[in-house]
Sequence to fold (598 residues):
Amino acid sequence: MSWLFSLEAVYVLTGILLLCFAALTLNDRNHSHRFGSALFWAVLGVIFALGGVLPYWVTGLLVLLLVGLDGAGQVGKSAPEVNRKQMKPRRNEGHEGRKEELEEGFDVSSSSSSLRGEKPLLSNAEIKFEAEPAPRIGPRIFWPVLAIPLVTVAFAVVFRLLRLDANRGALVGLGFGGLVAMGLALWLTKSRPRDLLDAGRRLNEAMGAVNILPQLLGSLGVIFAAAKVGELIAVGIQQVIPDGNVFLLVLANCLGMALFTIVMGNSFAAFPVIAAGVLVPLIVKPLGVNPALAAIITLTAGSSGTLLTPMAANFNIVPAALLNLKDQYGVIRFQLPYALTIWALHVLLLWLFIKFA
Amino acid sequence: LLKLIGVVIVIVGLVLRLRTTLVVAVAALATGLLAGLPLLSSKGVWQDVPLLTKTGQTGIINLLGKAFADNRLMTLFIITLPAIGLSERFGLQEQAAALIRRVSAATVGRLLFVYQIFRVVQGALGIRLNGHPSFVRPLVFPMAAGAAQQVKQELPEQTVETIKAATAASENYGNFYGQNLSVVQAGVLLVYGVMKSQGYELSLWSLVFYTMPIVAASLLLGGVQFALLDRRLKKELEGQQ
Fold:
């Protein structure tokens, strides 16, 4: 009973779901990389289901297999379903008269964003294509999506009441929220379970191998920590900054995070490095700062960098293309004053908190 | 100093636009090897295998496997995809669009500010989506252009360019800062996982709590920038009449 509501159970569930995705992919004859993709999601499914019991070296080798498959370009997505008709534009945009461009725009975004996303994206190209006009369900279609956060919070509250770890509760709740949402969606739309799984599979493939990126980056952070890379960066910064100058330390932390994000186009990739190299050894540990506050402020200090970098193509460059902006960097230019101001606020907020709390 | 090779590999790899997963894995292996770590722990099958192992040291592949297994929580959102995918087939996007259309906003700036709030709320509900193709291009930009046309029918090209850039920006502002308001979003889970591996077991809810001042600031700044935009557009459009 208690196992049923454990995190491991939710992982097993997710693993089984991934194996179903893999089976559907294997059956999909329109798929660009049928076997490679099926293997990729199946291996990820095995890691999810058995990660708790497999020897770590086996999991490690499986991870390298995942990376190898993606690196060899063997992970792709399915062609849109055959015989899908284009749906009518949702809204009559008469004065614009640019519907054709709109369709092209969808292609641009889905192909490039799935390759290099900062965060997993839901830009599935199929949104605009339907086999036949779906029956009208109206606003009730929000129910499954709203069930996910509701169940998540409910589990967290129940775990807290039972004096268990509320974090764990939220994660377990996320798993069961997904299940409840699946049930609701099936019931509302009167679809077959196969359609449900296939919809999930297509969404998952549209996002692609970047799905495992946060998990992989987290692992990179662990290896950096084992190799003591963090200490090395910390020592370097300590040599530059005079002893105990809190403001300069905060500045170095937020600047490092923003610059690293600008270079990598990705605050999620920058965070593990900055956390191990600056935030924890130079700010949280010696100054006794609230780690949650310092960590989340450091993360969003990186978001200011994301607003400024063409490397974050799916947020800054692809949209410019989607909207037919003459200036490729038009979006970044508009975001510049905003990004600089909010970055400065991050520095100020963190410094004030350390100083007065 | 050689250990920094991992950071260099990541930067060079991403600048060259190589596959991110591959770059990250190569960086991990290279960093570990240059730090003198063995590939595998000397245990079980690999007991005392020369070259691959070193006595008493944990192997890189073991570290990688353990970290990847421990961090499964970061990819847990996959379990929500079937429900979201099926809902999208049955008009989720259209219903969300209808919702935002009901918000009447007379000016470009106000509309974009409302859209920013809308995206923050979506983030707080744990809904992850790339709004550029699904909302900004098909919906928000035409609405913003329509609002500007209420002032002047023929919009100068420069004005249209500004409105386009501002629309994309409102999506990014709402998305980047709003998503940390939910414990199921990848950003909060990443911070949780990384800090845990650094020895700090944080509460997910405290992360959400402490991001609130920044969310407030992001909305305030958005409000200011979009209000300034309205003034500028008004000048541009009325000045020409």
